[in-house]
Write a structure and sequence with these properties.
The protein is built from nine helices and ten strands. By secondary structure, the chain is of the alpha/beta class. The radius of gyration is 19 Å and the shape is globular. It binds zinc ion (ZN).
């Protein structure tokens, strides 16, 4: 459409599909290239009404979507990363953290909460891609670990919503250690027989996929989410050959046995409640 250009006033192309557009503005859907009214998109859980492309949601959005009556209690949102390596790329890590905290209003790329889902008390944590690509540094590892311990202590299920570009390179080996830390703590949850449900959203990659995102009892993915370890571009360049259609998308990953189900965002809460009933009450599934 000739009038739909990124440069035009009031219109933004959702390049990384992170929606943060004032009312009345338009975004271009990365799924079907159609222009979408930002407000209508917001009213539709950030899912394209034309092709069901799922735009990224924030941890706040997921908590409000999933918890009963949108009621929940946030934990550990005062944890912030230090800069043990004195790391600088295009800018100093400390400056990047400070700017990102200011821009997003978040302390880091994971937040934890407790509340009820379908009447069941749960410990939940969700990642935020808007905070340095949802990268996993020591704060993410600690927030997730504390959410796991909270589930163990209160004997509740654990629900994690993942959204990550992988490890946070600015924290080097400390970032990689979070994989072992979260995985080790999840064995304690498993030992107690408490359910762990993962909701994989677009994208879930790198160290997050290689640790807690793939250790659930049930893996739910949103449609069309990129799920993998290394991204398709890296794999294509390494292998020197073209990849199959839909490679690393939820549907492909499910077909190859890595996830259990694909659930549209509008059905997430209902499906979660069914699973929690099944795990916690051992009753037959409702419709
Ligand atoms: Zn679309």
């Amino acid at each position: 459409m000739s009038w739909f250009k990124r440069q035009a006033k009031g219109i933004k192309t959702a390049l990384n599909d992170q929606i943060n557009v004032p009312e009345g503005q338009w975004v271009k859907c990365p799924g079907c290239s159609q222009p979408l009214n930002a407000r209508e998109l917001g009213n539709n859980l950030l899912v394209c009404p034309k092709c069901t492309y799922h735009f990224k949601m924030t941890s706040q959005d997921y908590f409000e979507l999933l918890f009963d009556d949108r009621k929940f209690r946030i934990f550990d949102d005062n944890l912030i990363s230090v800069d043990p390596l004195d790391f600088t790329d295009k800018k100093a890590y400390t400056t990047r953290l400070k700017n990102t905290r200011k821009k997003t209003g978040l302390s880091d790329s994971a937040r934890a909460a407790t509340g009820k889902v379908g009447g069941h008390s749960v410990s939940m944590a969700s990642m935020d891609f808007s905070f340095i690509g949802g990268s996993m540094g020591s704060v993410v590892g600690e927030v997730i670990t504390r959410a796991i311990k909270r589930a163990c202590r209160k004997k509740t299920p654990l629900i994690l919503i993942t959204q990550s570009g992988g490890a946070r390179m600015m924290e080097g080996a400390l970032s990689l250690m979070q994989m072992a830390k979260t995985a080790a703590n999840l064995t304690k949850l498993s030992d107690k027989g408490l359910p762990f449900i993962v909701i994989l959203t677009n994208p879930t990659t790198g160290g997050v996929t290689a640790s807690f995102a793939m250790l659930g009892d049930v893996h739910i993915a949103e449609p069309g989410a990129l799920i993998g370890f290394a991204g398709p571009r890296i794999i294509r360049e390494t292998m020197g050959q073209d990849l199959p259609d839909g490679f690393q998308k939820s549907e492909f990953v499910q077909e190859h046995g890595f996830i259990d189900m694909i659930v549209e965002r509008k059905d997430l809460r209902g499906r979660l409640i069914h699973l929690l009933h099944l795990f916690m009450e051992a009753v037959p599934l409702a419709d």
